[in-house]
């Protein structure tokens, strides 16, 4: 087994549309990734479900024009030998569900997976190759 590396995942649920209720973001942990239980939430709750291996961020209500819905949590990757030479998924199958209080419709969509390549981090993008 390789050396563990901890990654912080930062999430924002900015809402410039209608007010929402029952917002939930869920994602499955990647191979050899563990939830550290280190978390910080401005709005809502973050929970880890070991049976499904998913992290869930839930917010009861998000008002329209709400920009302070922030959560962050730490994941630790302890890579195996077969992961050397490539990037590794940290959080996959990320899905968002909510209810639009104005249109009275459910909203559901998926986000891109988050990997060690950190494509959303301008300083570390494409530098997440696992080395021996």
What report would you give on this structure?
- The model has no long low-confidence stretch (mean pLDDT 89).
- The chain has 132 residues and is mainly β.
- It is elongated, with a radius of gyration of 16 Å.
- The protein contains no helices and 9 strands.
- Helix content is 0%, strand content 53%.
- The protein has a single domain, classed as Immunoglobulin-like, CATH 2.60.40.
- The protein has strands spanning 5-12, 20-29, 33-41, 45-49, 54-62, 70-77, 89-100, 105-111, 114-115.
- The strands form 2 sheets. Strands 2, 4, 5, 7, 8 and 9 form a 6-stranded antiparallel beta sheet that branches.
Gist of the model:
The chain has one domain (5-115): Sandwich (Immunoglobulin-like).
Q: Give me the CATH architecture, please.
A: Sandwich
Secondary-structure element string: EEEEEEEEE
What is the CATH topology descriptor?
Answer: Immunoglobulin-like
> Under the CATH scheme, which class?
Mainly Beta
List the defining traits of the structure above.
mainly beta, Immunoglobulin-like, 6-stranded antiparallel β-sheet, 3-stranded antiparallel β-sheet, 9 strands, elongated
Strand-helix topology:
Layout: E1 5-12, E2 20-29, E3 33-41, E4 45-49, E5 54-62, E6 70-77, E7 89-100, E8 105-111, E9 114-115
Antiparallel strand pairs: 1-6, 2-5, 2-7, 3-6, 4-5, 7-8, 7-9
């Amino acid at each position: 087994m390789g050396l563990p590396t901890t990654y912080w995942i930062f999430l924002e649920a900015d809402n410039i549309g209608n007010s929402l209720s029952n917002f939930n973001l869920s994602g499955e942990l990647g191979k050899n990734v563990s939830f550290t239980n280190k978390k910080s939430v401005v709005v809502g709750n973050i929970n880890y479900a070991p049976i499904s291996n998913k992290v869930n961020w839930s917010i009861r209500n998000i008002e329209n024009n709400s920009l302070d819905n922030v959560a962050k949590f730490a994941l630790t990757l302890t890579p195996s030998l077969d992961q050397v030479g490539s990037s590794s998924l940290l959080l996959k199958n990320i899905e968002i569900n909510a209810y639009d209080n104005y249109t009275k419709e459910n909203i559901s969509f998926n986000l891109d997976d988050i990997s060690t390549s950190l494509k959303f981090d301008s300083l570390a993008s494409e530098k997440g190759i696992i080395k021996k």
